[in-house]
Amino acid sequence: MAESENYKKGTEIRAKLMGPKYAEKMNASVYDDPIMKKFGDYAREAVFGMLWHRSGLDLKTKALICVISDTAQARWPELAIHLRMARNQGWTEDELSEALMHLCGYIGLPSVREALLTAKEVFHEMRNEK
Prior knowledge:
By secondary structure, the chain is an all-alpha fold. The protein contains 8 helices and no strands. The radius of gyration is 15 Å and the shape is globular.
């Protein structure tokens, strides 16, 4: 894929959100074959380069929206990625845990339990990276 302006923007914002080391780790493990590379290239250009780059909401707010959306849809692998992004944008572990707890009355305890278990793993991993 030729690197369009949106692709370049997407690469930059993706590294900022995930952290450069984690973004490279994903490139080497998830997007290391032709099928997933196509998906990764599209996501980098369309989602990160266009959607995340839009003005109107800051990156911190957008990251929290993704955490809530993933939890509501039971998308645990995506939640792990978005929790990392949310932490990298300044949300604290306590704030994210409270946001997830708030969902108990709206989407139910089983989904929130799984989300909190995912958060526990992500937060532990991120603390050990420092």
